[in-house]
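Appendix B, example 12.
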Amino acid sequence: MKRFMLNTFLLTLAVALWGCGGSDSDDLPPVSVSITVSQAIINAPAEGGTYIISVTTTGKEWGAYADKDFIKLDMKNSAAQSGTLTVKVPANPNTSARTGTVTVMSGSARQTISVSQEAAAQSAYNAPEGYRLVWQDEFDKGSELNTSDWTHEVQKDHWVNNELQNYVNHKSPDGKLVTEIKGGKLRINCFKENGKVYSGRVYAHVNEGWQYGYFEASIKLPKGKGTWPAFWMMPVGNDWNTNPWPMCGEIDIMEEVGVVPNEVSSSVHTQDYNHTKNTQKTHAMTIADAEGAFHTYALLWTPDEITTYVDGKEQLHVTKAALGSGHNQWPFHYAFYPIFNLAWGGDWGGMQGVDEGALPVTMEIDYIRIFQK
């Protein structure tokens, strides 16, 4: 009986001490947090819509994020226990429906809002039938490239093709921009500074790329003897020791040199078909205002064919059946990533010398869009 009374006294004392703050806060039981949203399902029409959702939490604050880029969010009073979440769903450019989720969070609590959108009756883009948009950059946000999408090459002059430019990450040593977003365009600038020429070369999703698809960009080319702008693709994660160029493959969607104004060309390079052997597969056409006006340059790449286009007109067409199915003839069986660059001089761009009086020059890209089946 005495032992029972002693144990009861000790338990009562412990509870009293805990209730009076006699224990560390880490020992306190966790506080349960709940979240309430006024709408948990959004069914948007193809033309899009805006949805205002009330959010309430028993926590101190709340936040939200979307798992798909097409869903845009705006939060008000997120530092309080109640506020509003605006979900904007833009018009669907695809002829297939799309879905995503919005996650509202407070403390350890989560609430999910599902978002679905109807397919468009007609695609907003000129992609082939059966292809849907998987990634794009319209260059309409901010003043710099998004580093989660784009990587700058950094190399000194004469790195490849005896080119004269130095590729730098975003800025020259004096702080001038080699790449910038301005007026809804990506501008790649090439200029001379302290006796050296600087320019930009950027890669889209260099670590993932895409295997097969329709790739399109709208580009305005610069003028000047010595310019060498290009829109092209190289393989992701290539081992240059075991799979060197040109064995690895290269797809040139668009190239032009200022010494031959307005003549745009497309090529593929493989071990058996490349310019070092004069066996490369190339086609060129003249566009009267390629220098100074925007034109669309595109690639349709399937397991068996590569076709490039200028303003919807076929440029180059090659097939695995015609070239051969071996790796040395057709290495286009893994992911490639897109490249934009503006070179100066080099074996081709400087084949008749360069005119430094033409500097500075700018290559402009209005958008890049990638579609897959």
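Helices lie at 2-19, 320-323, 346-349. Residues 351 and 360 are 20 Å apart (CA to CA).
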